[in-house]
Each structure stands twice: as structure tokens, then as C-alpha cells.
Structure prediction request, 232 residues.
Amino acid sequence: MTGQDPKFVKGAFAKIADRYVLTNHVLSAGTDILWRKKVGRIVREWNPRKVLDVATGTGDLALEIQKKCPDAEVLGTDFCPEMLAHAENSGVQKTQVADAMNLPFEDGEFDLVTVAFGLRNMAGWQDALKEMNRVISPGGHLLVLDFSLPKGILAKPYGFYLNKVLPRIAGVLTGQGEAYRYLAGSIGDFPSGEAMLELFRKAGFSGEEAKPLSGGIASIYCGTRGKVESGL
Ligand SMILES: C[S@@+](CC[C@H](N)C(=O)[O-])C[C@H]1O[C@@H](n2cnc3c(N)ncnc32)[C@H](O)[C@@H]1O
Prediction:
């Protein structure tokens, strides 16, 4: 598996858009808020001027970045208008419908691209990372936040929670249990740790690093777009 079916993904998010934020907070017991705050603290250190939050959804990460980097220009994009409508209403500075696999931006337009819980849902992970690399200026950063699978003693209980408990709770909250069974499968298929860093390198990033969160249930991956050789 190297990616997901975009038609299914767009439809699934359109159906859960109205209950997405609440369901996230319930299913993660609020931990997703702490993960996004951690991302905010990391990106503040980079002092970005122009930020693209790809697959922004309801805009939770874009809002956190706006809070931590008040001088930055922040644009949130997503290919699902139903999700993006919530980002607009919650105060994301600027939003635009756009497919992450084919971003409608010039090369090197942003000095930071972020994507939270979005890359895993895209049609091709490697191609999506390459496309993000294209719109980052030389020396600019990419930050990916996404689910990963914990190892060791947490692995079994987390697998049970993910596959058996989570789709039931989410089914009650959203009426869309199927979308959340997809979530469990998509996490199992998605590369994490060193495998993700390898994808970063292949997409043209350097200085790549992985930071596991909450025992490895999620991870932050960072990379820098290499300087373009002038050839002179
Ligand atoms: C799990 S939500 C994440 C939303 C938000 N980033 C957050 O942290 O809560 C995944 C989002 O990715 C979007 N998405 C998936 N594939 C996409 C693509 N190819 N282009 C743009 N958005 C995409 C979906 O529409 C959905 O809004």
C-alpha cells in the first residue's frame, strides 16, 4: 500500500465534517490538542513568514500556528470543501480548495509547509511529499504530524482500541463507523519512524528527524528542503 483512494477519502471527510473536531477530542481524550500545541512550539522556533497548512481540514493546526506565529501569513488548503468551511468559520486567515497532489502554487512559495493527519490519507505518499518539497523555498521546512503504531507493551492494547473500540465510539458520535474502520486500517498501512524518514529523503528533504509522541501513537517528522545547486 502506498496511498489511499481520493474519492473515498473526500466523501468520508465530507460526511464527518460537522462532528470531526469533537470526535477527535473524544477519541484521543484531548491529546490531539497537546500534539498540535507541540507542533506550534516547534514551528515558532523556525520563525516562518509564509506558511501552507496542507489538508488543513477544520483548520485546527493552522489556528495553532497563527497563535504561535502571529506575524506569519497562514494559508490552509484542503480538497474537501465541507471540511474547509469549518476552517473558514473558525478563523483561519486564508483558505483555498486545493489537492495536495497538485498544489496550485509556484515553486518555493512557502518557507514552511505543515500537514497534520493528512499525508496518510493521500493517493501517493512519496508523490505528495515531492509536491510539498516543490513549493517550499530552499532552506524552508516541512513538518508532518500523523499517527504511528506504538511498539512494545502498548502495541497490543492500542491495536485492540484502534480496531475494536474506536470505530464503535466514533460510529455513535458521527453515524459513520465505516470511516473510522478505514482510519484503523490506514494507520496500519502508513510508514512510520525510519521508513517515513526514507520517504522524506527520497522526496528531497535533508536533516530529517522523527519525534514519537505519547508512546509512539503519533509522530512528528521534520525535514529541510535542500539548497538548490546553481550549477556554476
Ligand atoms: C484527518 S483530517 C486532518 C485535518 C487537520 N489537518 C487536523 O489536524 O485535524 C485529513 C484531511 O486531509 C484532507 N485530504 C486528504 N487527501 C487530500 C488531498 N489529496 N488534498 C487535500 N486534502 C486532502 C481531507 O479532506 C481531510 O480534511
Summary: Confidence is low (pLDDT under 50) at residues 228-232.
